[in-house]
Amino acid sequence: MSTEKIENTSPNASKSERENALRLKELFRHSPIGGELLDEASLYQNRQHLMRQLFFDGLYQQIINVHGVVMEFGCKWGKNLALFTALRGIYEPYNHNRKLLGFDTFDGLRGVSSEDPRALEGSYATSKGYEEHLRSVLDCLEQECPLAHIKKHEIIPGDVRETLPAYLKQNPHTIIALAYFDMDIYEPTKVALEAVLPHLTRGSILGFDECNWDAFPGPTRALDEVIGKGKYRIQRSPLQPIPGYLVID
Ligand SMILES: C[S@@+](CC[C@H](N)C(=O)[O-])C[C@H]1O[C@@H](n2cnc3c(N)ncnc32)[C@H](O)[C@@H]1O
């Protein structure tokens, strides 16, 4: 795994940007705020963090009148699921049918192939048993929103090439409003994309965290092979240079 990835900065970041990102992390790690740190955590949120949240807000707003679940493939620590929980509570507090599903091995990338020249099997692993912590956090966040007695999220650990087909077999009624692919690599993205297609409706969004990106070309290749680049407009947001999405119409 490259140093850039450990620091979670873009491979396009300059040396000074990387140094500054590290400095911010150090300031956060040694924050003197103490017990109020959670309430004040946005003090340490930089432009990039905020842009990413606003990007997801834009996607979420586009599915409000579309039936179906939200699936994130490669949810890792789960910050996007946390954000979606809040957005659901804000924009559609009474939609207890908008389930959020997070898929991840929690052991890092699995299924790296020759289509993924810079990816390393096992990178991006969370800490052992992390999925239980994530479930507890999402339970807690859901309690902050209306209809909290109805559980509306599910964490599905394991290789998506097995867990997604199994989930859809058990839940054949599933309609997917938003599927967000952030596994960085070709094979699992291709398998997941093929599996979700029969579950889409007009207005469903397919989002790709790595789109038209030479650092991680695998997901774009999967998109090209399964759907094709020309069938739908591959859209982007001014808030994010790499991610792309398409709306099924
Ligand atoms: C870049 S991280 C995701 C980051 C996360 N979406 C975020 O925004 O914070 C990529 C994730 O994909 C997961 N992943 C890779 N291959 C996978 C597979 N075959 N099945 C399930 N998850 C996989 C990894 O475990 C890793 O957590």
Structure description:
The structure is a single chain. This protein has helices spanning 3-7, 15-29, 47-62, 79-91, 130-142, 160-170, 186-196, 218-226; strands at 69-73, 100-104, 153-157, 176-181, 200-208, 235-237, 240-247. The chain is α/β, with parallel strands linked by helices and 249 residues long. The chain has 2 domains: 1-44, no CATH class; 48-247, Rossmann fold (3-Layer(aba) Sandwich). It has a 7-stranded mixed sheet with strand order 3-2-1-4-5-7-6, with helices on both faces. β2, α5 (130-142) and β3 (153-157) form a beta-alpha-beta unit. The longest helix has 16 residues, at 47-62. The protein is globular. The relative contact order is 0.14. Mean pLDDT is 95; it is low at 1-6. S-adenosylmethionine (SAM) binds at residues 74-77, 79-80, 103-105, 108-111, 124, 159-161, 182-185, 188.
